[in-house]
Specification:
Blueprint lengths: L11 H16 L4 H27 L19
Helix pairs in contact: 1-2
Length: 77
Amino acid sequence: MQVSKEDFLMEKKKIDRINELAHKKKTIGLTDDELEEQAKLRAEFLEDFRKRFIAQLENIEIVDPDDPRLKKKGPLS
């Protein structure tokens, strides 16, 4: 399964908004609406992260260093 970055990359402005809300929460606190927005954005971010992580894992190829097909064949072999 080939997945492109556009399939699950979260927009930079949404990530900026997550960071803005986190900073505001630490300083002056958030309203109920902002808390709800923060929860939705975080859930979206986590979903995006999981998709990217799974795609990364699916592209890993485990190689056995003892596999004879991988032995380097020199000019004297």
